[in-house]
Amino acid sequence: MVVRDLKNTRRTGASIEPMFTERWSSKSFAEVPITADQIASLFEAAHWAPSAGNRQPWLFVYSTNGPDRERFNSVLNEDNSRWAPKAAMLVLVFARTVRDNGGKIRTAQFDTGAAWMSLALQANRMGLNTRAMGGIDLDAAYDVAGVPRDTFESVCAIAVGTRGTDDNLESTLAGENLANNRKPVNEIAFQGAYTGRPNNSS
Ligand SMILES: Cc1cc2nc3c(=O)[nH]c(=O)nc-3n(C[C@H](O)[C@H](O)[C@H](O)COP(=O)(O)O)c2cc1C
């Protein structure tokens, strides 16, 4: 049986693996716990991401329930507090920006982004939904997660769990519960030089 995602009408302009358009970030989460095996698979996928010098500067600190989870929820801004507490797991994401020798890891955020995408794609393949959030108290996240401010940058949070329906969302958010679209590729990829306007070569 083909299971269609009725919330996702994305169309591509060139042939790609379906996993890229099948991943989208719903704000709706069903009340289904995440298992230890699922959590292990998510971070396993994340940690195979490429990074400059193979430094692997990403750091994920996560919580599923209990008092820990209440502390994690407390970093969410008002908008994100309307839906993210329902996700089975909340992950606080940090990027290590300082090397052991004191030098800077210039690409720490870039590398950490690659790890997040690996986690998100793995989650989608396992039937799980993810949504990243920059809308958190980045400073409070250090204390909540026990992460030192002098070595790491606080980046964002990620909500992870089983996708819910519109009924799992407050009514004002239900209309936004759809996979969104993208700019045309000819605005983001240029052959030779950036011209500042859409090109015809990509
Ligand atoms: C770093 C980052 C920060 C984000 N911050 C928020 C946020 O604070 N709240 C929210 O609802 N969505 C947030 N999003 C989700 C984006 O809005 C979403 O990924 C984007 O619209 C593309 O949609 P898609 O993920 O469904 O493809 C964030 C995504 C990323 C990658």
Characteristic terms for this protein:
202 residues; alpha+beta; NADH Oxidase; 4 strands; 28% helix; 14% strand; binds flavin mononucleotide
What features would you describe in this structure?
- Helix 2 packs across helix 5.
- The chain is of the alpha+beta class and 202 residues long.
- Strands 1-2-4-3 form a four-stranded antiparallel beta sheet.
- The protein is globular and about 55 Å long.
- It has a domain at 69-164: 3-Layer(aba) Sandwich (NADH Oxidase).
- It is built from seven helices and four strands, in the order ααβααβαβαβα.
- Flavin mononucleotide (FMN) binds next to strand 3.
Task: Give a nutshell description of this structure.
The chain has 202 residues and is of the alpha+beta class. It has a domain at 69-164: NADH Oxidase. 28% of the residues lie in helices and 14% in strands.
Taken from the alpha-carbon principal axes, the silhouette is globular
Q: CATH H level of the domain at 69-164: which superfamily?
A: NADH Oxidase
Task: Kindly state the percentage of residues in helix.
Answer: 25-40%
Per DSSP E runs of 2 or more residues, the count of β-strands stands at: 4
Give the termini distance in whole angstroms: 36 Å
Number of helices: 7
Which architecture of the domain at 69-164 per CATH?
3-Layer(aba) Sandwich
Rg over CA atoms, rounded to whole Å, is 18 Å
| Unreliable segments of 5+ consecutive residues | none
Order of helices and strands, N to C? HHEHHEHEHEH
Question: If you average the pLDDT, what whole number results?
Answer: 96
The CATH topology assignment of the domain at 69-164 is NADH Oxidase
% residues in beta strands: 5-15%
Largest sheet: 4 strands, antiparallel
